[in-house]
Amino acid sequence: MGDKLKNYLENLFKQLSKRLEYINDEVLILNVPNNRLQGDYSTNIAMRLSKKLKTNPRQIAAEISSNLLELADKSIIAEVKIEGPGFINFFFAPGFIAGVVQKVADNGNNFGRSNKYNGKKAMVEFVSANPTGPLTIGHGRNAVVGDTFANMLEAIGYDVTREYYFNNAGRQMRVLGNSVKFRYLELLGQTIEFPEDHYQGEYIKDIAQQVLNDHGDKLVEESPEGIFKDYAERIIFDDIKKTLGNIGIEMKSFFNENDLYTEKRIDKVLEEFKAKDLSYQSEGATWLKLSKMGNEQDKVIIKSTGEPTYRLPDIAYHITKYERGYDLIVDLFGSDHNATYPDVLAALKALGYDIEKIKVMIHQFVTVVANGQIVKMSTRKANFITLDELIDEAGRDAVRYFFVMRDLKTHLNFDIELAKKQTDENPVFYLQYAYARICSILRMTTEKELKASFENLDLLKEVEEQDILKKMFHFADEVEFAALNFEPNKISNYLEELAALFHRFYAAHRIIGSEKNLAEARIALIVAVQQAIKNGLNILSVSAPEKM
RNA sequence: GCCCCGGUAGCUCAGUAGGAUAGAGCGUCAGUUUCCUAAACUGUAGGUCAGAGGUUCGAAUCCUCUCCGGGGCACCA
Q1: Which of A167, A222, A321, A466 is the most buried (most CB within 10 A)?
Q2: Mean of pLDDT values over A538-547
Q3: Is the CB of A511 under 7 A from strand B?
C-alpha cells in the first residue's frame, strides 16, 4: 500500500526531472519536519544541488517549486514554500489528507500491511536455548523480539518460518542428567555433596521427584545419561514450550542439532572444506583456515578428542537453511554470541553461499531491576527469575511490550515493579486505554444512532484532526521500515505517538453534541484510529481490550 | 592488549541515508471532570547530546582520539 503522499511527491519529481535535468543526478530525500509549520514533507534537494551547480540554494529551490506547482494537482498539494536556507516544504490539501480514513476502512485488518514481499520465504531462528532449564527473563527478550520480527516480516508479505535450534547432547546435557540423578539419590535418603558446577535449580528436584514417582527406587544403578537425562530433557522442553505459548509464541519447527550427524551433514561439510583446502590438521585437531577467509585467526572445528566444536554443526545447520530455499535468513542472538557468528559467515561464504541473505541480529542483555536493585542472574546458580514467573506477575501484554519497546542495541532495563503496575507509568496501558476509550465512545454513539460517514471528511479541519490523519498516512511506511530494519521499537513508538494524538483530540473536541455531519466524520476518524492501533498492537501480539 | 554495542533532561528512553528552536513518558510544581472512560489533557521547570579535535553552508547523527558502562576474544555452546 505504501505511503501515498510520499509516492505522489516522488512521481512528481520524476516528471520534473524531464524539465530540469540537474534533478536527475540527485537523490530525492523527503522527510517529515518536526514542526508542522514547516510542511507535511520537506526536502533539502536544493541545498544539496547548490554545491554542484554553484548557485544560491534558494534560487534553485524557487525554480524547482515553480515548476512543481505547474505539474501538481492543486487538490492534492495546497502549497509549496521555500524556507530557511533553501528547504522546499510541501503542504497537502486537508481534504486529500482526510482520504486516509476511507483507505483505512477499505483495508480493515490489512491496513498497514503490504504484499510487497509476497512469494518470498523467510526464516527467523530464535530462542534456541538448550533444554537445561526453564526460560529466563534473558531468554524473554530474544523470544519476544524474534517472534515480533516474524510478525513484521509477515506484515510485508513474507512467508515466515519460526525455528528453534537445539542441542540435546554433549557436556551440558550430561551435567543435567547427573544433577537429576544426585537429587534422585537425595530423595532416597542418601547424603550427597551436590557439585557446585551442577544445576542448582529447584526444578531439578521436581524432575527427580517425577522420576521417583514413576520408577521408585529401581534406578539407583542407572546411568545418569539414560532415563535421568531423558526425563529432564522431556520435562524441561515441555515447560519451555508452555512458556512460549504463554506469551503467544508458536514455533513452526524445532531443529535438533543431532539430525546433522545422523544425516551425515557434518561429514559432508568436512569433506567440502578438505576438498577446497580450507581446513588442515594440527596438534591432533582439525582447523578451519579462517585467516584465509578474512577473519583474525584459524579456529578448531574438530577437537583432538574427535568431537566437533559448535562451529561445525552451526555451519552445517545454516547450509540446511539455504537448501530449504529461504530468501531471508534471520538469526537472533544475545550479545554473548557477537564474536562467534563471523566465523560461521566466513565459512559459508568460502563455500560459495550468498551470505547477504543472512541477517544476524544481536540484542544486548536485559538488566533486571527489582526493588531498585540490579539482579544478576545465572541459570546454573538458579538465582534467576523465570519468564513464566514474570508473565504471571506482569501479564503477557506488558511482557511483550517491554521487551520490544527499546532498540535492540541498547541494554534493556526491565523494571519488574513498573511492568506490574497497571498505572499511567506503564506505556502499554496508555495505548490500550486509547483503544478502549474509542470503543467506549463508539458504544455511546451507536446508542445515539450516529454512525461513521465518509461523506463529509473535509470537515476534519482542526489541527488535532489533521495531525491524526497525517500520522495515519505514515503507518504502512513505518511498518515496512521497522520490518526491513528489524526495529520493532519503531512500531511501539509510532503507536504511542498516534495514541497521544488521539488523546489530545479527545480532550479538545467532542463527537456527541457536535453537528451531525461533523460528528459522523469524526466517528469515521476514530474508527480509523481504532483500526490502526489494533493493527499495530496485533503486529506486537499485544491485545487490544475493548474495555479497561 | 584486541573486537562488538552503548553514553541524549532527575529516571527510562525517542531522535529514519547530516538539516530548521534537540523531543516524549515518568517524576517536580500549577491547573483541567454538571460534558463521549481523569489509566486522559494543558501549562511549568529541567540539556556543555560523556569529553576533545576534525569534515562542511550546517553535526546528537560522519571520521579520529580519550574517558565511563556492558558483552566477547576456548580443542564451552
Answers
A1: A321
A2: 94
A3: yes
Contact yes or no for A330/A383 (Cβ under 8 A): no
Task: Identify the three-state secondary structure at position A124.
Answer: strand
Question: With contact defined as beta carbons under 8 Å apart, do A159 and A414 qualify?
Answer: no
Nearest Cα to Cα of residue A313 among A402, A203, A321, A11: A321
Q: Tell me the whole-structure pTM to 2 decimals.
A: 0.93
Residue corresponding to grid cell 527406587: A217
pLDDT at A253 exceeding the cut of 80: yes
Q: What are phi and psi of A59, to 5 degrees?
A: -70, -40
pLDDT tens, residue by residue, A149-206: 999 999 999 999 999 999 988 888 999 999 999 999 999 999 999 988 889 889 999 9
CA of A425 to C1' of B34 (A): 30
- The tens digit of pLDDT for each residue in A107-135 reads 999 999 999 999 999 999 999 999 999 99
CA distances from A296 to A273, A292, A310, A350, A434 (A): 18, 9, 18, 15, 53
Residues 241-260 of A with CB under 7 A from strand B: 257
With CA of A424 and C1' of each nucleotide, the nearest comes out as B39
Query: Residue A138 CA to nucleotide B53 C1', Å?
Result: 40
Report the C-alpha gap between A484 and A474 in whole angstroms.
15
Number of Cβ within a 10 Å radius of residue A95: 15
**A339 burial level (CB within 10 Å; 0-12, 13-18, 19+):** exposed
Asked whether residue A54, judged by its CB, lies under 7 Å from any atom of the DNA or RNA strand B, the reply is no
Provide the positions of strand B that have an atom within 7 A of a protein CB.
3-7, 12-17, 19-27, 35-42, 57-58, 69-77
What are the strands, taking DSSP E only, across A231-303? 253-256, 279-282, 285-288, 299-302
Rounded CA–C1' distance between A73 and B70, in angstroms: 54
Residue nearest to nucleotide B56 (CA to C1'): A51
What is the complex's ipTM, to 2 decimals? 0.93
